[in-house]
Amino acid sequence: MRHLCLSFFFGAIYCFSFAQETQKPPLHGKHWMAITGKPLAATAGSMIFQRGGNAVDAACAMLAATCTMWDVLSWGGETQALIYNPKTKKVIALNAMGVAPTGATAAFFKSKGYNFPPEYGPLAATTPGTPGGICYMLAAYGTMSLKEVLAPAMQLAAGYPIEAQTANSIERGKARIKEWPYSKAVFLTHAGENREAPEAGEIFVQKDLLATLQKMVDAEQAALKQKKSRQEAIMAAYDRFYKGDIAKEFVRGSQEQGGLITLEDLARWKPLWEEPLQTSYKGIDVYKLQQWTQGPMLLQSLNILENFDLKSMGYNSTQYIHTLYQAMNLAFADRDFYYGDPYKAPEEPIKGLLSKAYAKERAKLINPTANNDKAGPGDPYPFEGKTNPYIELLKQRGFPIDTNSSRNFLPAHDTRTGMPTPGSVPASDVAAATPPQEAVDADYLDRLWRGTTSVEAADEQGWVVSITPSGGWLPACIAGKTGVGMSQRMQSFVLDADLNPFNVVQPGQRPRVTLTPSIALKDGKPFLSFAVQGGDTQDQNLLQCFLNVVEFGMTAQQASEAANINSNQLWLSLGGTKTADRQPKPGHLLLHDSTPAATREALRKMGYTLTFDDRTSGPINLIFFDWKHSSFWGGSSNHGEDYGIGW
Question: Is the pLDDT of residue 1 over 50?
Answer without folding.
Answer: no
